[in-house]
Amino acid sequence: MSDATDNLYAAREPIFPKRVYGKFRNLKWAVMIVTLGIYYLTPWIRWDRGPNLPDQAVLVDLAGRRFYFFWIEIWPHEFYFVAGLLIMAGLGLFLFTSALGRVWCGYTCPQTVWTDLFILVERWIEGDRNARIKLHRANWSFRKARLRLTKWVVWALIAVATGGAWVFYFADAPTLAGQFLTLSAPSVAWATVATLTATTFVLGGFLREQVCIYMCPWPRIQGAMMDDDTLTVAYRDWRGEPRGKKSDPNAADCVDCNACVAVCPTGVNIREGQQLACITCALCIDACDDIMGKLGRERGLIDYLAISDTEREKAGEKPTPAWRHILRPRTLTYTAIWASIGLAMTYALFIRPDIEMTVAPVRNPTHVVLSDGAVRNTYELRLRNKHGEPRQFGVHLNGDLAMRVSLEGTPYGTVEVPANETLKLRVYVTASAASDVSQMDEEPIRFWVEDNANGERAYKDTIFNGTGRLQ
Prior knowledge:
It is a single chain. This protein is α+β, with helices and mostly antiparallel strands. It has 17 helices and 14 strands. The strands form four sheets. Strands 6, 7, 8, 10 and 12 form a five-stranded antiparallel sheet that branches. A four-stranded antiparallel sheet has the order 11-9-13-14, with no helix packed on it. Helix 2 (23-41) packs across helix 5, helix 5 (110-126) packs antiparallel against helix 7 (142-167) and helix 5 (110-126) packs across helix 9. The longest helix is centred in the first third of the chain and has 26 residues, at 142-167. The chain starts with a helix and ends in a 6-residue tail after the last strand. 24% of the residues are buried.
């Protein structure tokens, strides 16, 4: 019983990908440089919004309950913009997966990008694949300890920079950086950096392909996004089988060199067909094309290929052009939905008013009859000033001239709202005893608010409650 139980678990055998050159490897380098550059540098970009507002281009201001993205400012009640972006991101994943398989996993997933960076550091310090395998199997010595410690220190520095860059999105980057240097940063900032440093160090340095195979749910979801017309990395077995050495007269194109396996960051043998562990990074294409070129054989033994083309190619026919696989009803539908949401959000963004208001009648009591017979209603009015400086707003009422408006705390019909703030105030509407409105049950009225600086106006409709004598 104990022997059977012991055999249920096999220790992880580390994977040491070999260096490879080619167009897909170059594309991955470019993606890594661009994405890491955006991540690390964006918090330091300045954007002048005027006085009383932060000058950081991209900032999630939790204390001020605001999200800034260059010239765009998102308030809490406008969270639907963030929800729209998340929906677009999900649809984008569906679109690219249905067209090109796990292209997100292979090129732009953070786990892939940081793992590539960590492997690059490992290769610089310990050598290429054979040297790293030899070092891994060697007994501990001063040289092995020195190389491992050097590698881990560089990994740790990258991990600290990663965690530090993340918290800079939630506070003014130069200010928070100075607080870190003087050890006066808030405890939550230290805790966040420590957590992200540890996870980056462990996930990028040690778990690597385990994250993609066991921890990430996307490999199990992507099957529903792919079909027979999806272009994905595949092996042309009708060209490559049976495998054999170049000198074997019965062998096909595959010389069984295992170059495709040696460069795979997840240890996949693509010649065994589609597998959950394959992230379609296409490095096996570069490796195989290099070998085919050296042997003077046709490239493309491993390539981006649609399942629907396999039988056609086996019969000696030409495959369907790639653009026809990409531009098909399914992907066009995803694109149309994605673009519609984007256009709707853009339209909503540009028609947003700089003044926003809400009006809520106070229901207890619904109305008050004054000593002269006039009827008064009380309302709670919220005014939101989206400008970067304080503004004077006038509050008016549209309707019967016998009704007058007064603001609590001021004899004037105007009130000052601080910059980028929401002001809550009570407003009283009084209808004279001689007016019909004072004796009706419910009468529609309209509040108008005007920005005295530029004349911009906003309104809200509500109800005035009278005594109901005319009902």
